[in-house]
Amino acid sequence: MRYNRLMSKRYDQYCPVCHALGLVGERWALLVVRELLRGPKRYTDLLEGMPGVGTNVLAARLRELEEGGVVRKRKLPPPAASTVYELTEYGQELEEPLYALARWGARTLGPPAKGEELYPDWGLNAFAGLLDPDAARGVNETYSVELRDGSVHVDRGAASDADLDAEMSMETFYRLAGEELATRQALYDGLVELKKGKPATLDRFFGIFNFAPRPLVSA
Fold it and tell me: What is the DSSP letter of 73?
């Protein structure tokens, strides 16, 4: 499978990294992919989810991603009859590379500063990106996540009868996920309100969802 090999020639190197950057390395391109990981979106939805992008820039990125086989455009049947953009199968394969990049960046990003906007979709992408599949192997559970006034409210299990109900600030969540703070210390310092469940359950939660680098798969 090959898409637009000419894109990588700007680097004058035969290199898969150069080719990948030719496909998704332009500014805003990976953010388009981030937005489409949750499913098809209209052009106006993409504009809303990417504050600061110009309409001409977004149109250019979408055109380039279509040419590269990463994104496709599709018209929904009536009564919607609107045009949406979605990831191709090839584009969907960017999910784990993008989440790995997000985990790497999160380790030095720090929690949001006062006044910085935190969009609801952050939580949807974050928990998929924070998942450690090895730690979660054999675990079948449901997590309900609520972002409320800058704080994260997390339940394990159905929200109505959760096994774990803990509330904390975004800063505390960030420090726990980044392994900068132990869950027991957070509980002792009153940074986490454990409404239901045991400290060990909270330990296990952040053992599964965290910023830690994932081990490389050995040959």
Answer: E
User: How far separated are the first and last CA of the chain, in Å rounded?
Assistant: 23
The 10s digit of each residue's pLDDT in 115-147 is 666 555 555 566 666 666 676 677 666 666 665
Q: Can you spell out the DSSP letters for 136-169?
A: TTT----EEEEEETTEEEEEES-GGG-SEEEEEE
pTM of model > 0.85: no
For helices 16-24 and 55-67, angle between their N-to-C axes, nearest 10 degrees: 140
DSSP 27-48: TTHHHHHHHHTTS-B-HHHHHH
Taking alpha carbons only, the member of 116, 104, 124, 102 closest to residue 37 is 124
Phi and psi, residue 211, nearest 5°: -90, 0
Residue 61: how many CB atoms within 10 A of its CB? 23
- Quote the CA–CA distance of 186 and 199 in Å, as a whole number: 10
Encode burial over 192-213: b for 16+ CB neighbours within 10 A, e otherwise. bebeebeeebbebbbebbbbee
User: Cis omega before residue 133 (within 30°)?
Assistant: no
Rounding to the nearest 10 degrees, give the CA dihedral for residues 55, 56, 61, 64.
140
* Pairwise CA distance, residues 20 & 16, whole Å: 6
